[in-house]
What we know:
The complex is a heterodimer.
Chain A lengths: L3 E10 L7 H5 L4 H8 L2 E11 L4 E6 L5 H8 L7 E6 L2 E2 L5 H10 L1 E4 L11 H5 L1 H4 L5 H14 L15 H14 L4 E5 L7 H18 L2 E6 L2 H7 L2 E6 L2 E6 L1 H6 L4 H7 L10 H4 L5 E2 L5 H11 L3 E5 L5 E6 H10 L13 E2 L5 H10 L4 E4 L5 E5 L1 H8 L10
Parallel strand pairs in A: 3-8, 3-9, 6-7, 7-8, 11-12, 14-15
Antiparallel strand pairs in A: 1-2, 1-4, 4-5, 9-10, 12-13, 15-16
Helix pairs in contact in A: 7-8, 14-15
Chain B lengths: L6 H15 L1 H23 L3 H15 L2 H17 L2 H31 L1 H16 L6 H8 L3 H12 L1 H12 L3 H9 L4 H30 L1 H5 L6 H10 L3 H32 L2
Helix pairs in contact in B: 2-5, 2-8, 3-4, 4-14, 5-6, 5-8, 5-9, 5-11, 7-8, 8-11, 9-11, 10-11, 11-14, 13-14
Bound molecules: adenosine-5'-triphosphate and magnesium ion.
Adenosine-5'-triphosphate binds next to β2 and α3 of chain A.
Amino acid sequence: MPIIEVKGLTKIFGPNPKRAIAMLAKGLSKDRIYQETKLTVGVNQASFTIEEGEIFVIMGLSGSGKSTLVRLLNRLIDPTDGQVLIQGKDIVKMSKEQLREVRRKQISMVFQKFALFPHRSVLENTEYGLEIQGIDKSERRKKAMDALELVGLKNWENSRPDQLSGGMQQRVGLARGLANDPDVLLMDEAFSALDPLIRKDMQDELLELQSRMKKTIVFITHDLDEALRIGDRIALMKDGAIVQIGTPEEIMTNPANEYVERFVEDVDLSKVLTASHVMKRPVTITPDKGPRVALQFMKEHGVSNVYVVDGARKLLGVVNAEDASQAVKEGKKLTDILIEDVPTVTADTFLHELFDQVSQAKVPLAVVDDSGRLSGIVIRGAVLAALAGSTDLEVGS
Amino acid sequence: MIPKIPLSHWVDQFVEWLDTHISPLFDLIKATIGFTVDSFEWVLTMPPALVVILIFTALAYAAARTRVALFTLLGFLLVWNLGYWDVTMQTLALVLTAAIISIVLGVPLGILSASSNRIQSIVTPVLDFMQTMPAFVYLLPAVSFFSLGMVPGVVASVIFAIPPTIRLTNLGIRQVPKDLVEAADAFGSTPMQKLIKLEIPLAVPTIMAGINQTIMLSLSMVVISSMIGAQGVGVDVLRAVTQTEVGVGFEAGLAVVILAVVLDRVTQSLVQNKRSGSK
Lengths: 397, 279
Ligand SMILES: Nc1ncnc2c1ncn2[C@@H]1O[C@H](COP(=O)(O)OP(=O)(O)OP(=O)(O)O)[C@@H](O)[C@H]1O
Ligand SMILES: [Mg+2]
């Protein structure tokens, strides 16, 4: 069961909003509805599911309805129509008490402008969610301190929020959101108010936290780079409607329409594509073979290197044509001419990160997994071709 | 010719009706207010004047700065020297009682009108009415329900002085930033938790400003209150006016001014302390 399931969710702002629902169903545009009724469409019949443990990014230009949509997920805004199922239960139908319970235990939120309480210390801010649940002081202090430690703010618990930098304030916001151990964390442009370097740090930290805590995160942003960096899946919004949902690669390589295409056109592909997108199948050989066989392989495949792997495909090194023909003349074994110092990368290395390596290495980079097994090689030409926008990407085995 | 609408007759009848039907309530109110004023008066006039003056000076020093404390000391010594000490303390007892009642009634009313636009739209015109009506008019119902003395004086002062407390409490709570209220909601606060843990603490400086204005307004009622038998320095001012004793009028007026300045500075610095404390 998905952790969040949204069905036909619609929010229309203005008096008597129900009258515009039929118009939306007929497919009238946001502008048209505004002209005719003076009602503003915030969210237009959104439907999607979010799986447990994923980072689901909602992206779109200003005014596209992102903030409205995320506030419908914990009913800070009441929907005009549609359903929001959290772990199978429709929060739209819940009573005030039930809704409070969901907000206290299951969903918490991190805000763009931090929204820290200025009259409370960092610790008191962090424990707020626990305090209002009536959890006793020693227990909630402990949990709040744990949350602060998690975000790297140990020893700051007695400061006032306005004594901290923006990045630190948002860490407090994050700690406050994590302290009551929710299943879902809603983050509305949580990093947008931070300057770029701090922002990158926070993104990394969020990913790091996520890998440890396995929360479900709904992350709002208008920044495509950010969306691509942290999103497992991305939903693109326009005029309140969701125009495409997919993984970063799907969005990049296969934009659903012109709007998405325009959105993604100036993206730096080197920050989206990874080694796995450009790697090729390597020519391999086991070390028990001789240099003559190695030469034969090279000739067959038209390459000047072969990669030497053991029975389990673990990378041992590389042999080049020059050394191999020398070895044939001198009667050496393959292991005598093995170059063990092969540049390696992992499959999820972004292209911009392997740029230097690939341009300096004398042999193609070897793509290896955690246990050192060879899964492919990256040649300079393939990287350049991918960055030039060629969609003809051969994905290695 | 259209006959005159008998508005005054209706009002008289309504007041009479109130008087006969809920007089036990009025008796209770009267007893409570009377007791409070008497207690304040007793506390303020029983000890030797010098002791009370020193205590006030210490309080002013704690709440405000040295200059305010010095002014309190010299000002009150002057009042004592001129022979207006006891009546000034009677006035202070009246003002403090009126202020306490205004806070007890006004802060909750302000909170209530902040909680709904509907209530605000009822309360605001009533407050406008209360503040634009000539203050003398309040003397009449006050007298007809509570006869003469301190109690109707307090009641008239409260009616005249309570609006700023209500208005500024309302304003202070409405001014709490929307995103903070949203955050409190997002974590599942009940309306009461939101009020106590977020809205009131952030509104305190504004509420204090309202209370300051309320105190000043109730002080401005002392002369008028003395017309219906409230004791205090207002009596001397009134006598001076009716008998054109300019010298006495000046002395009594000076006592009122000194009291006003002390109360104003002390309550204002309480506001400022709160402001910087919340930083
Ligand atoms: N309370 C409201 N009353 C009326 N219209 C609203 C309200 N809140 C949002 N809207 C409208 O709904 C639409 C979506 O707004 P929303 O704030 O969700 O956009 P957003 O994608 O978050 O934009 P941004 O990137 O600027 O934060 C906009 O047209 C906005 O004007
Ligand atoms: Mg927004």
